Give the backbone structure.
Amino acid sequence: MNRDPLFRALARPQMVAGVTYPFFVLNGIVAAELFLIFKTPLALMPSLFIHALGYAAHLRDAHIMALWMTKLRRTPPVKNRRLWGANAYRA
């Protein structure tokens, strides 16, 4: 079966610097917070590493961020959810 490049381009999510837009914004928020906390440009290095990991993940599947968000939304609640206010698992 031939692949149609137009269909693939139209079915692909919006990308910025090789990652999806939501991942790019989330990484930007992390970078800004680290910079504001540590007040040094070296605090931006972890965000470059995170971006590289995201880029590698998005090379394999462009919808990886949407799949991850769906998994987080559909994870069933655990018994102690009311106590912690989130899904917390016993160690």
